[in-house]
């Protein structure tokens, strides 16, 4: 083998090695590029997922804040409505008390009412002797109503039960009920009228004052009162 032939073979070997190296370099570069793209895709997907999670949290937080704001607004409106209704009811009660005080100053209307209140109290107690407490200003009209109440009491017992029972009613002239209010907004203790009837030892009490009857109506007939005052909300 001459030098020229040897040089050719050497050159061929060099070219082969260079081609192999180039192919290997291309393969390594392609693999590196593929790995880079895969890692880049993973990183992009990770960032996308993080952004989605952050956005979801922000949306959730906004929904919660909106729900809280809506609930707060509804509660404020409800409290405002309740306060307005309470104010209306207070005004109605005050006007009713004012009307009761007016009734208690009119003997023509007040005495028949006292007769009914006394009769009812006597029927509840069914005692041979009862003590009647009233306002100091009502003593005369109460004393006038007692005989009529006793007569009515006897008539009811005879008609409904077929029995004849007598009752003695005494006005307590030492322990009076509170006087009439000076205004409908009075905060101190007062009595708008009516009577409080007890047995002889005072252990059994029938509170038939106008204020007690009004409180009883408000307590027992609250749904009817609300539906009358606020028909749309009933």
From TrEMBL:
GO molecular function: proton-transporting ATPase activity, rotational mechanism
Gene3D superfamilies (alphabetical): 6.10.250.1620, ATP synthase, E subunit, C-terminal (3.30.2320.30)
SUPFAM superfamilies: V-type ATPase subunit E-like (SSF160527)
Pfam family, one: vATP-synt_E
UniProt keyword Methyltransferase, yes or no: no
Keyword field: Ion transport, Transport
Any one GO cellular component localisation term in the record: proton-transporting two-sector ATPase complex, catalytic domain
Listed InterPro entries: ATPase_E_C, ATPase_V1_Esu
PANTHER family registered for this protein in UniProt: ATPASE H+-TRANSPORTING V1 SUBUNIT E1A-RELATED
Protein family per UniProt: Belongs to the V-ATPase E subunit family.
Name of the protein in its database record: Vacuolar ATP synthase subunit E
Organism annotation: Cryptosporidium hominis
Highest classification ranks of the organism: Eukaryota, Sar, Alveolata, Apicomplexa, Conoidasida
């Amino acid at each position: 083998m001459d030098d020229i032939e040897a040089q050719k073979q050497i050159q061929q070997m060099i070219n082969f090695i260079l081609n192999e190296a180039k192919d290997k370099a291309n393969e390594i570069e392609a693999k590196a590029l593929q790995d880079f793209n895969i890692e880049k895709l993973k990183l992009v997907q990770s960032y996308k997922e993080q952004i989605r999670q952050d956005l979801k949290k922000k949306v959730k937080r906004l929904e919660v804040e909106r729900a809280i704001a809506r609930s707060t607004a509804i509660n404020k409106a409800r409290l405002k409505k309740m306060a307005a209704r309470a104010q209306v009811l207070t005004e109605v009660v005050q006007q009713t008390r004012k009307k009761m005080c007016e009734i208690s100053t009119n003997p023509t209307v007040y005495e028949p009412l006292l007769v009914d209140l006394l009769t009812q109290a006597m029927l509840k107690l069914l005692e041979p002797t009862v003590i009647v407490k009233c306002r100091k200003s009502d003593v005369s009209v109460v004393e006038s109503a007692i005989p009529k109440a006793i007569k009515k009491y006897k008539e009811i017992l005879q008609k409904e039960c077929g029995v004849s029972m007598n009752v003695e009613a005494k006005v307590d002239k030492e322990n009076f009920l509170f006087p009439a209010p000076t205004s409908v907004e009075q905060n101190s203790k007062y009595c708008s009228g009516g009577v409080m009837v007890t047995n002889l030892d005072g252990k059994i009490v029938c509170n038939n004052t106008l204020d007690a009857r009004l409180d009883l109506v408000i307590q027992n007939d609250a749904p009817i009162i609300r539906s009358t005052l606020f028909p749309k909300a009933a």
